[in-house]
From TrEMBL:
InterPro entries: ClpP/crotonase-like_dom_sf, PDZ_sf, Tail-specific_protease, Tricorn_C1. The keyword Signal applies. Residues 1-23 form the signal peptide. This is Peptidase. It comes from the Bacteria. SUPFAM superfamilies: ClpP/crotonase, PDZ domain-like. The lineage of its organism: Bacteria, Pseudomonadati, Bacteroidota, Cytophagia, Cytophagales. The keyword Signal applies.
């Protein structure tokens, strides 16, 4: 075998490898600097929610660029960018990669939602079917410690170092990041309930949040005369369109329908969203407004658009209720405000994930991963920011966890009384 032939075989093998395997050679200091410059500048020019933040983005550059001389591995660089991105305290901004000890994504990788009430960290929602619910965590419980660390100390490392003021939004996200935990450390949550302390272990015997599985793209059933469809976190899967169509056709004879979007934390795409909404319309209508701040920032010309949804075959015209909660996220939130704008559904539940805008993905020029940030502001057609929308009918979760109060409320609205 000639040397030239061996080289040709080696070249073909290398070129055939995935990019992530071909790019394992360590980067040079100049390449890390180039990637950091691209990261910082791209966010400066395209992130569209700086006006809502206490973030000093030039200060972020000073803080994290000073750490670059000590960066020599991919893992170190990932951690540096994670920390820099955390300065935005925006759970719709993320890297496309993670480390074993990276925080789980909020809300996709969480099973509990909490906020500060009168200065105390309190559970406001628990994700059905996951570890936190299984071990007895319930709304109303006060959080005392996370992995034996008092809550205030646990959230301190998750608060940005550049913030002019640590506002309520920053503290809330830091609290929920701390509760989400990382990808390898089992959580111990210490709570106070009825005057007593309890230790709960939501990742024992296994961390369900690391291995989330669903029986299908959706599930459905008939509850008396009412149809019920729950989307199982599949709004980004185009196969959901056919599955939804056939399911809705099977429920065509019902007196009303409940569309449950409470398990859609990973977002989705507008093709699936418009396909779902289109099955409930008989004429074209706008469902969402977009704004593009980067264009206005660059040229001084404001740009906004209305997105239209068109009717599809066999529209379902009976009453519709949409159920939402903290794990209704991104595209789930878009469908919700869409149905509200279309005047086609009653929205029942609690506040949603409140994710900011629509994201765009960018890729670093030398590293093998990218990052995602909100670049478009999204609004209800009435001008209300999507992240501020709350249901017309607000129903709090059952603090005992024995009754699905939102579902019960929806059924009460839709059930047809039996004829005497």
């Amino acid at each position: 075998m000639t040397t030239l032939f061996r080289f040709a075989c080696w070249l073909l093998l290398v070129l055939g490898l995935p990019g992530s395997l071909r790019a394992q050679a360590p980067l040079t200091p100049a390449q890390y600097q180039q990637d950091f410059d691209y990261f910082w500048t791209t966010i400066r020019d395209n992130y569209c929610y700086f006006d809502k933040k206490q973030t000093d983005w030039p200060r972020v550059r000073e803080l994290y660029e000073a750490q670059l001389p000590g960066i020599s591995t991919r893992a170190q660089f990932v951690r540096l960018l994670e920390n820099a991105l955390n300065e935005l305290y925006d759970n719709h901004a993320s890297l496309s990669t993670n480390l074993p000890d990276s925080r789980r994504l909020v809300p996709t990788g969480t099973d509990v939602w909490a906020r500060f009430e009168q200065g105390k960290p309190v559970v406001v929602a628990v994700r059905p079917g996951f570890g936190a619910e299984r071990v007895g965590l319930r709304p109303g419980m006060e959080l005392v410690a996370i992995n034996k660390v008092p809550v205030d100390q646990a959230i301190a490392p998750l608060l940005g170092r550049s913030l002019k003021t640590v506002d309520a939004a920053a503290r809330t996200l830091a609290l929920n990041l701390a509760l989400a935990g990382d990808h390898r450390t089992p959580r111990q949550l210490t709570v106070r309930t009825r005057g007593r302390l309890r230790n709960l272990y939501p990742d024992a015997p296994t961390a369900q949040l690391e291995h989330i599985r669903y029986a299908g793209l959706l599930e459905s059933r008939q509850l008396g005369t009412v149809g019920y469809i729950r989307i199982n976190n599949s709004l980004g899967n185009n196969r959901l369109i056919a599955a939804f169509d056939s399911t809705l056709d099977a429920l065509a004879g019902t007196s009303g329908l409940i569309l449950d979007l409470r398990e859609t934390p990973s977002g989705g795409n507008t093709t699936v969203a418009r396909a779902i909404m289109g099955r409930f319309l008989t004429q074209e209508q706008p469902y969402q407004r977009h704004e593009f701040p980067a264009e206005e920032r660059q040229f001084g010309i404001r740009r906004s658009t209305l997105e239209i949804v068109s009717p599809r075959l066999r529209p379902y015209t009976r009453p519709l209720v949409v159920l939402v909660g903290p794990w209704t996220s991104s595209m789930g939130e878009g469908i919700t405000i869409g149905f509200d704008a279309l005047g086609r559904a009653t929205i029942i539940g609690t506040e949603m994930a409140r994710l900011n805008g629509a994201v765009t993905s960018f890729r670093l020029p030398n590293s093998t991963f990218g990052f995602n940030i909100p670049t478009e502001r999204l609004y209800h057609v009435n001008g209300q920011p999507r992240e501020n929308f709350v249901p017309a009918v607000r129903i709090a979760p059952d603090p005992q966890g024995t009754t699905d109060t939102a579902l019960a409320g929806a059924l009460q609205r839709l059930q047809v009384p039996a004829r005497r």
